[in-house]
Design goal:
There is one protein chain. With about 700 residues, this protein is of the alpha/beta class. It folds into four domains: about 240 residues, Rossmann fold; about 160 residues, 3-Layer(aba) Sandwich (Rossmann fold), CATH 3.40.50; about 70 residues, Dna Ligase, domain 1; about 110 residues, D-amino Acid Aminotransferase, Chain A, domain 1 (2-Layer Sandwich), CATH 3.30.470. It contains 25 helices and 29 strands. A seven-stranded mixed beta sheet has the order 9-8-11-10-12-13-14, with helices on both faces. Helix 3 runs parallel beside helix 4, helix 10 crosses helix 18 and helix 16 runs parallel beside helix 17. The longest helix is centred in the middle third of the chain and has 18 residues. The N terminus is likely disordered.
Length: about 700
């Protein structure tokens, strides 16, 4: 059984020695400035006044002019953290030495282990087993080290500006890229941990540690794969409950993620879609680039999420006012006209030429009196006519034209920051002069500032969505059923699902003409004849509908036998689908996250419309209903152009039943009912498919 098939772990490992050791040893310390052992030793010695630094080299008694021991075990003092930077051939010996010396944590820089193939992985696993028996956590191997700016620990090879964002990354370059973007926005790093091969400590362990870290306000994660998806989900949910936003950047949005999928559900649930479902379940935020990650982190760290989508726009030019309004509306936000009373109040703070409705155009007011920005902001934060404020355009550039304005413009930035902080308003700024002293004053006052208005609008839309997130307990996987499925096919799948509570029309599977006639005698016309053996029966002409009587049934039988020669057929009572909406429902068992539930507009247009939503399974009836109502085509369910609403509660119950059935059967890789017909009175499955896990 995969790790995802178990209940999320609640045990959290003590990583104090990893992030705040009292002593550090560099194993493989070197005089060669081209080696990691040299770079790490230089940094450890630089911090030796704060924590004891030991240098370990098997063959040299001195390194960088400092004494070096030939092993950890030869040291007289206790080592909290051992950073191992030796060639792969010497790694086993270095680990055994660390165990003998009873170090408290290990950072393994060494590469050439689990990432090299089966032999290296077996060796790596054996080392981890020894370390776990000794109770020593290990970060890596094949990693770039660890840093904690709150404790002064610097056991990596890159500099990170101090701040409050923890970075956990499987790629050193992505971490550096993100840190540069954060620096440009006036943010910095509390901790950095390089995941490497995740042989022992994984991303969830490090997230849990950062949740408990007082100096971390948000967590940025770049991860290319998860050893235990449910454990990650539990850690991400814990971060959300603690008020520490977790922003995830991963890979898998390309077409390659869908290769090899055997059913509609399999081809629609890509790895990226799985991560979207996990993030929606846990409150984590999924992004697509380091720049998006930095833009969102700035908003999350500095801006209170708005309660709604109404935005007041404060601009100093008609062009910026219009561009900002368009950008906000494209992001799904509203720029609504102010009341006469609020417009009158704003008019009292600005020149007669100003635009005083929403968007506001100061129209030269900044040149006349720079303090008008703060006065207008004061009016806006006191009003209940907007949920957030976007200031856009030229602020921060007035002093370029008139240096005498500089002090006043800086003070205006501070005043705006004080007004926002004091009122708890949701406020974001965009300016052409993002590095100017007045804008620095805005950032230092706690305001998120962007260079591009589309980035500001996007960040505000994500904040609105975040405010709407309602935390719920993560789904717990049930115990596997005592009777696992062994063989499937349409008929067996249909019977198994019907026994679990999925409603179908009466049917019978037949292989001969005699069986056909006998089965038809117990069914009510009109009937449906389905040629089995081809998973896409309707595409090959293997589904004959509206058969009115026995003669029609015999004609259909001979037709499909002549064209398709199926091994068997299913004859079914024709469901009354008058006023029905066709949906697809399915579950795919992801290798790391377990069952992922899919719902969507179904039938033969499933791939064309691609109107689907996913969730971490199993889900309840209430969650299934929310999922169905989040479809773009949800209006089809609730009543569209005078048509009656369909039985969405019964459809949701069907989805929940299927999701639990799939969770109880870990041997199922994919399961699908497409379509299900939802009428005003019932929900009925018209097809079924189960694909079992193929063992090597």
């Amino acid at each position: 059984m995969t790790p995802a098939a178990s209940t999320p772990l609640v045990y959290r490992r003590n990583l104090a020695a990893l992030f705040d050791p009292t002593s550090i040893a560099i194993v493989g310390a070197s005089n060669d400035p081209g080696k990691y052992g040299n770079w790490l030793a230089v940094r450890a010695l630089r911090d030796s006044a704060r924590r004891q630094a030991y240098l370990i080299n098997k063959s040299r008694p001195t390194i960088l002019g400092h004494p070096a021991a030939h092993s950890l075990a030869a040291l007289k003092g206790q080592v909290d953290l051992a950073v191992i930077a030796v060639p792969a051939a010497g790694f086993d010996e270095a680990v055994d030495d660390a165990i003998t010396a009873e170090v408290k944590a290990i950072v393994a820089i060494t590469a050439g282990l689990g990432e090299t193939g089966a032999e290296g992985l077996a060796r790596q696993d054996a080392l981890v087993a020894r370390l776990r028996r000794a109770g020593i956590p290990m970060l890596g191997p094949n990693c770039l080290g660890v840093l904690d700016n709150t404790t002064g620990l610097d056991a990596t090879v890159n500099d990170f500006r101090p701040g409050s964002v923890a970075i956990i990354s499987q790629s050193g370059n992505v971490a550096i890229d993100l840190a540069e973007h954060l620096c440009e926005q006036g943010l910095g790093v509390s901790r950095f941990a390089s995941l490497g091969n995740c042989a022992d400590l994984d991303v969830a362990d490090l997230i849990d540690s950062c949740v408990d870290h007082e100096g971390t306000s948000a967590i940025a994660v770049y991860c290319e794969g998860f050893k235990d998806g449910r454990k990650f989900a539990a850690a991400a949910a814990r971060a959300a409950r603690a008020g520490k936003p977790l922003v995830l950047l991963s890979v898998g949005r390309g077409a390659a993620s869908t290769r090899g999928a055997a059913s509609h559900t399999g081809s629609l649930v890509t790895s990226h879609v799985v991560l979207e479902a996990v993030c929606e379940a846990t409150g984590a935020e999924l992004v697509s680039s380091p720049l998006e990650m930095a833009n969102l982190l700035q908003a999350l760290v500095r801006t209170r999420p708005p309660a709604g989508s109404r935005v007041a726009v404060l601009a100093d030019g008609g062009g910026h006012a219009s561009l900002a309004s368009d950008s906000l509306e494209e992001a799904g936000l509203q720029v609504e006209e102010f009341s006469h009373d609020l417009s009158t109040q704003i008019a009292g703070e600005l020149p007669p030429t100003a635009g005083i409705s929403n968007p506001i155009d100061i129209a030269g007011g900044g040149e006349q009196d720079i303090s008008c920005f703060a006065r207008v902001v004061k009016r806006l934060v006191a009003s209940c006519e907007s949920d957030s404020i976007l200031m856009t355009g030229f602020f921060g550039g007035y002093s370029d034209y008139d240096p005498s304005v500089l002090d006043g413009e800086v003070q205006a930035g501070r005043d705006i920051g004080s007004l926002v902080a004091g009122s708890g308003a949701s406020f974001v700024a965009q300016t052409m002069f993002s590095d100017s002293a007045p804008v620095v004053a805005l950032r230092e006052s706690g305001i998120a500032v962007y260079r591009n208005v589309e980035h500001a609008s996007w960040a505000m839309s994500r904040l609105v969505r975040r405010h709407q997130f309602a935390p719920q307990p993560l789904p717990v996987l049930p115990a596997p059923t005592a009777a696992p499925l062994v063989v499937t096919g349409y008929g067996r799948a249909r019977r198994a699902l019907a026994a679990a509570g999925i409603p179908f029309s009466p049917a019978s599977e037949v292989t001969t003409l005699h069986e056909l006639k006998a089965a038809a005698a117990n069914l009510h016309y009109p009937l449906v004849l389905k040629a089995l053996g081809d998973e896409h029966k309707s595409d090959s002409g293997g589904v004959i509908l509206n058969i009115p009587d026995l003669n029609g049934l015999l004609t259909a039988w001979h037709d499909v036998q002549a064209r398709l020669a199926p091994p068997s057929c299913s004859i079914e009572e024709m469901a009354d689908t008058d006023g029905a909406v066709e949906l697809i429902i399915g579950v795919r068992r992801d290798p790391t996250f377990g069952p992922i539930v899919l719902v969507g507009v179904g039938g033969v247009y499933t791939e064309l419309l691609k109107d689907t939503r996913c969730a971490l399974g199993p889900i309840t009836t209430e969650q299934a209903k929310e999922l169905l109502l989040s479809l773009r085509g949800a209006a089809l369910l609730t009543g569209f152009r005078g048509k009656p609403a369909v039985a969405i509660d019964k459809a949701a119950q069907l989805v929940a039943t299927l999701s639990r059935f799939a969770a109880e059967h870990p041997e199922i890789d994919e399961i699908e009912c497409n379509p299900i017909a939802v009428t005003p009175t019932r929900a009925l499955a018209l097809d079924a498919r189960i694909i079992l896990h193929q063992t090597a």
